[in-house]
Amino acid sequence: MQFGIFSVGDVTTDPTNGRVPSEHERINAMTAIALKAEEVGLDVFATGEHHNPPFVPSSPTTMLGWIAARTENLILSTSTTLITTNDPVKIAEDFAMLQHLANGRVDVMMGRGNTGPVYPWFGKDIRQGIPMAIENYALLHRLWREDVVDWEGNFRTPLQSFTSTPRPLDGQPPFVWHGSIRSPEIAEQAAYYGDGFFHNNIFWPKQHTQRMVELYRERYAHYGHGTAEQAIVGLGGQVFMRKNSQDAVRDFRPYFDNAPVYGHGPSLEDFTQQTPLTVGSPQEVIEKTLSFREYAGDYQRQLFLVDHAGLPLKTVLEQLDLLGEEVVPVLRKEFAKNRPANVPDAPNHGSLLAAARSGKDNGNDNGRKQEVTTA
Asked: Are 177 and 197 in contact (CB under 8 A)?
């Protein structure tokens, strides 16, 4: 399995002192967090994409390119690349360039985002979000796999004899995750292409996550990519740790109570009981994270959100120390126990390239139009 962190890049007031970091401070904090992730032995750093306050990561490939130059092992990803409001041609170019700069340590997570006002800023209609996600990714998929593309659709100008440059590193496109919290159409899309499905397992009860993952696994098998158990699944999760649980609850409560996303709603105790949020000791984080396998099956990637809600950088770096020293080593060992031999490892550039060279199928016929269902 791969373990890592993802950031939404929010600029949020620290409720304990009223201080608001500048955008400059927040951007530098995110890059410091990524470097710390490599230092403590995590596998992945992923950044969101937002174009509205109070968020800063409007250009993920710029940030990830900077991090690539300062790391050696870390897989660089997005936790959302807006497949709806971005031009798929620009996505193809930007991530292929990043692939070359990072020597293949790149994958990408497609998503629609959850901020409706962004759509008209880019000339798009949020009511067409799902159709745009389907059509734009169908084009992106071809752009990375065909040297010359002729294409016509509903949401951008046609392409005639178009070649996206640079071509993917070694002819192997970045691995794609399709991220969703609530849309079965996106689970269907991921299954159709044989791509990964990332359920951002942070707000909803486990029964919802189970239904979404089971749908993806069932449809992955339906499209002939392998068995349901061989489907590529990733999960999110929110954690806050101290050496003992009482200190964790005490220290995190003001951040939880005032967080823009879930503040002024359910209590911290109710939220941790009903969702994957874990606030407690490293052992409690281990136990709850291991329980994800009970309803998601054996999966490939676990990303934690640790830097939101106004938490200061010093506190976030302490969280990473605990993850790297006390949590992830145990999770690696425990998740490996009784893991069926037919469950694949998390894909990376090397494994994808080896599979392609051995002639294994990595996706459906590029020319077919996706028929999305929610069956």
From this structure: yes
